[in-house]
Specification:
Helices cover 34% and strands 16% of the residues. The chain is of the alpha/beta class. Strands 9-8-7-1-2-3-4-5-6-12 form a ten-stranded mixed sheet, sandwiched between helices. The chain has a two-stranded parallel sheet with strand order 10-11. The two termini are 20 Å apart. The relative contact order is 0.14.
Length: 348
């Protein structure tokens, strides 16, 4: 890596930290805008991991102009961060333009991908588009019938990211039901740190969609991964350790208000695991509706394992007791096992 590229990376990292600080300050001052929105430009995926309930193998990309309208609407709401997810977002033919549109709205731009389609030129295009954060989940060391997102397959992609990416890269590993070798999570986490990336660890539900506490060795691995880096904003709560122990969390979920999940049809949902609630088109989703959801208790909250919603809720945990009840419970629209991201080590 050239000296100029090192300097550029450091400058971009400093700029990201400044934007994050502004986002936190704005979020503390006002509850009237979303802090994070996940948006889906395509539901189709090039893989078929058996635990995932967020993909299909046939959907067409959302038209680019429609994506622009949705992003502009999020900009009008004052949204701080937009993370592009899927499906596999790299399958969208105009993804770079979508990322650029996020940045033009003054919003922090992130993406979640399986990493298979990353090559050097594609990474450089993401740099030019203005991507600021990227996450890849690596589920095992060797591919199996549950997931092909293995370290063996993706290690070369990580090398390319270490060489070319100007955005922050996070690598997510997994523990829990269905994981044949829990030591794999530790291998993935250590490899991520070797490349200078941040690392998180996730927990899988069992086959009936229920969260199970980790076993003794899994708990040891979980603790080791969590100790690999310094604490960050995303680890200032007890959600992670309660989830690892199979315990309920008691908190004020702000999904539908501070966190929005916008599906490929342009509807607002609480999250990927509660699609259908509230199910209102983004272009008709008002500030009053967001405020209503801010004050609404969600019945699924105690057993919720959607880490990004937990982390966003920390911003408002100290204020605005929720006074309206919502009757939905842990039986989400899909009973398939899902992946739970828990925050792990971070880079200095």
């Amino acid at each position: 890596m050239t000296f100029q590229k090192k300097i550029r990376r450091r400058a971009l990292a400093a700029h990201r930290k400044l934007r994050e600080a502004r986002m936190i300050a704005k979020g503390l001052l006002s509850t009237r805008h979303p802090l994070l929105a996940h948006i889906i430009p395509i539901r189709r995926c090039n893989l078929a991991c058996t635990y995932c309930n967020e993909f299909d193998d046939f959907s067409k990309p959302v038209p680019t102009e429609e994506m622009f309208r949705r992003i502009d609407r999020l900009g009008q709401m004052g949204t701080s961060i937009v993370t592009i997810s899927g499906g596999e977002p790299l399958l969208h033919p105009e993804l770079d333009a979508i990322i650029s549109r996020i940045r033009k709205n003054g919003i922090i731009a992130g993406m979640i991908t399986n990493g298979y389609l990353l090559v050097a030129d594609r990474i450089e295009r993401l740099n030019r588009a203005g991507l600021e954060y990227l996450q890849i989940s690596i589920d095992n060391v060797q591919p199996d019938d549950v997931s092909k997102k293995s370290l063996r397959v993706l290690d070369k992609k990580l090398e390319l990211l270490a060489e070319h990416a100007e955005f922050q890269v996070n690598i997510n590993s997994v523990l829990g039901s269905g994981v044949r070798n829990p030591e794999d999570a530790l291998a993935v986490a250590h490899r991520a740190i070797e490349f200078g990336f941040t690392s998180t660890v996730g927990i899988l539900h069992d086959g009936s969609g229920q969260l199970q506490p980790l076993g003794q060795r899994e708990t040891e691995i979980f603790s080791e991964i969590m100790s690999l880096g310094k604490r960050s904003f995303t680890r200032v709560n007890s959600f992670q350790r309660n989830i690892a122990a199979g315990l309920d969390n008691h908190w004020r979920c702000r999904a539908g208000s501070r966190y929005l999940y916008i599906c490929e049809d342009g509807l607002v949902h609480y999250c990927s695991q509660q699609r259908g609630h509230p199910g209102i088109p983004l272009d008709r989703y008002t500030a009053d509706q967001r405020q209503r959801e801010f004050l609404t208790t969600k019945g699924c909250a105690p057993r919720c394992t959607v880490s990004c919603v937990h982390q966003i809720a920390v911003m408002d945990s100290w204020r605005a007791p929720q006074t309206t009840s919502q009757t939905i419970g842990p039986s989400s629209p899909s009973h398939a096992p899902d992946l739970v991201q828990l925050t792990g080590p971070t880079r200095n």
